[in-house]
Design brief:
Elements lengths: L8 E4 L2 E2 L12 H9 L9 E2 L22 E4 L11 H13 L4 E6 L5 H4 L11 E7 L2 H13 L4 E6 L16 E7 L9 E2 H14 L3 E5 L3 E4 L2 E4 L2 H11 L14 E6 L2 E6 L2
Parallel strand pairs: 1-4, 4-5, 5-6, 6-7, 7-8, 8-10, 9-11
Antiparallel strand pairs: 2-3, 11-12, 13-14
Length: 272
């Protein structure tokens, strides 16, 4: 494996800016970051970025800037299904289809828009696209997850973040869900996340044999009745230190994923 492939992750933000639509958006990290860095435009204004065509950009030697085998976190400073980006999305689908040698992973709170945003040749789903449906409380889970389960997506994950209350998602954990990832809210005004809620979701996943990952404590973390203020830099390490992941292997990817090394390229294959 080449040095550049040892880190299998890459980032691609074709557009930036998003509108808030539900309780989980209240203290959105995109808005916080824009404020921190003094953005000249409002965070709610969606605009294309200079890296819009990053997946197909090439180096001087003709090779792609993003090498084969990468898991590309897509549109993490917006929402890939944002209505304001409808005119640009088809070009993104074309790039995603061209780069069949990479995985594209996006999370969305707008899963109810997916069907109308899919490319004409989607069929049962692109092999190299992973979609995470984000939920933050019981009402959003009850609304979004039935829609998610009904859609033609080959690789599905549930992102419970920011976790704002105890949630029961057990009835949505069927064989199509490849991972559940749970985390608390970051930021100065973060709402508290209770460790008992996290353990409850973990138990639901274990009972359904669905991989579970605790990815972040959040800034205000409750454990054994005590409230801990966790610095941003420690929120992910502390979650890992809890050592409660289930069915999660190398690079924080479900054990159901396999790595194949052929011609010095790393290929990721999910096999549920």
């Amino acid at each position: 494996m080449t040095e550049e492939n040892k880190n299998i992750f890459a980032d691609w933000n074709p557009w930036h800016g998003c509108t808030k639509i539900s309780e989980g958006c209240k203290y959105c990290y995109v808005y916080r970051q824009d404020e921190m860095y003094g953005s000249m435009k409002a965070s709610s204004i969606c605009r294309k970025t200079a890296n819009f065509d990053l997946p197909i950009k090439r180096k001087r030697n003709g090779s792609y800037k993003i090498p084969s085998g990468k898991v590309i976190f897509t549109c993490f400073t917006s929402d890939f299904l944002l209505k304001d980006a409808d005119e640009w999305r088809n070009d993104c689908w074309k790039m995603i289809k061209e780069r069949k040698d990479c995985w594209f992973y996006f999370f969305t709170k707008r899963i109810d828009r997916l069907e109308k945003c899919l490319p004409s040749d989607w069929g049962e789903g692109y092999d190299n696209v992973l979609i995470g449906c984000t939920v933050e409380n019981q009402s959003r889970a009850d609304y979004r997850l039935p829609i998610f389960l009904s859609l033609p997506v080959k690789h599905k994950s549930i992102i419970v973040a920011p976790l704002l209350e105890r949630i029961d998602i057990s009835r949505f954990l069927d064989e199509s869900i490849e991972e559940v990832s749970v985390g608390g809210e970051s930021g100065y005004h973060a709402r508290p996340c209770n460790y008992d809620w996290i353990l409850d979701i973990r138990e639901q996943c274990i009972n359904k044999n669905v991989p579970f990952r605790f990815h972040q404590t959040g800034a205000n973390f409750i454990k054994d009745g005590k409230v801990y203020r966790v610095k941003r830099a420690l929120q992910r390490p502390q979650a890992r230190k809890a050592n409660i992941d289930f069915g999660i292997g190398k690079n924080y990817i479900p054990d159901t994923a396999e790595y194949n090394e052929e011609d010095d390229n790393m290929q990721l294959r999910f096999d549920i």
